[in-house]
Amino acid sequence: RSLEQQQVLRTEILTAIQEKWAPSTIMLDYFQQTYPNYADFWLFRRQFSYQYAAICFMTYVMHIGNRYPNKISISRATGDIWGSELIPSINPNKAFFFNPEQVPFRLTPNIQTLMGPIATEGVFACALMAIARCLTEPRHELEQQLSLFVREEMIFWATAHHRGNVTENQLRELVQSNSGIIVNRAVSLASPPEGNLPANQTTIDLISKAVNPQSLASADALWMPYL
């Protein structure tokens, strides 16, 4: 089969799983039963949307992949979210952050339905942009804070791939270039687009890409795009 035929087949399989076994209302039904009072459920959903925006921002900016369901913990009492194994993906051939997944972050139909259209377009999308603006004004502060963490990732990459000792100059260049990649992604989320477009058009485009069925279907089985 060609790549296009494989993509169509994967999309059809995902649709069949959603129709027969895993509808997009699983999480919504569960938390509605957890919060019989709608006011409490509304507060939970608002807090969840803010928290999940922070997780998605980190996932996108830091090139973090493999956001499997078991790596995301949700507090039923508050709506707070904890993410485990938040490890950036690095190209095995070159020491650059690179996430091969087609989606910028995890925003499956179940998560989208739980937040609802108002929270998705209002709270979630705006929170993504607000976080980016807070971290990139001024820009140089974020780059300085990142340098220490990026340096550790570069040293780990060199050790894991048996690249020998990396010189201080090489390490400095790798840290600067990778920090710049992260900052540029954050700036792209924070900057309003040109022309007569919404201020958060960049985040809206990312959300559209994240919920695209074809992109979701391209994920591996452990990713569980239907959940």
Quickly count the helices.
Answer: 8
Helix content: 55-70%
Order of helical and strand elements:
HHHEEHHHHH
CATH fold node name: Phosphatidylinositol 3-kinase Catalytic Subunit, Chain A, Domain 5
Mean pLDDT: 89
Structural class: mainly alpha
Overview of this structure, please?
It holds the Pfam family FATC. Associates with DNA double-strand breaks. This protein is an all-alpha fold. It has a single domain, classed as Phosphatidylinositol 3-/4-kinase, catalytic domain (Phosphatidylinositol 3-kinase Catalytic Subunit, Chain A, Domain 5, Orthogonal Bundle). It is built from 8 helices and 2 strands, in the order αααββααααα. Strands 1-2 form a two-stranded antiparallel ribbon. The longest helix has 28 residues. 30% of the residues are buried. The model has no long low-confidence stretch (mean pLDDT 89).
Notable characteristics:
227 residues, Phosphatidylinositol 3-kinase Catalytic Subunit, Chain A, Domain 5, two-stranded antiparallel ribbon
What's this model, at a glance?
Helix content is 61%, strand content 3%.
Which helices and strands appear, and what pairs or packs with what?
Elements: H1 3-20, H2 26-34, H3 38-61, E1 72-74, E2 81-83, H4 109-136, H5 139-160, H6 168-190, H7 201-210, H8 213-217
Antiparallel strand pairs: 1-2
Helix pairs in contact: 2-4, 3-4, 4-6, 5-6
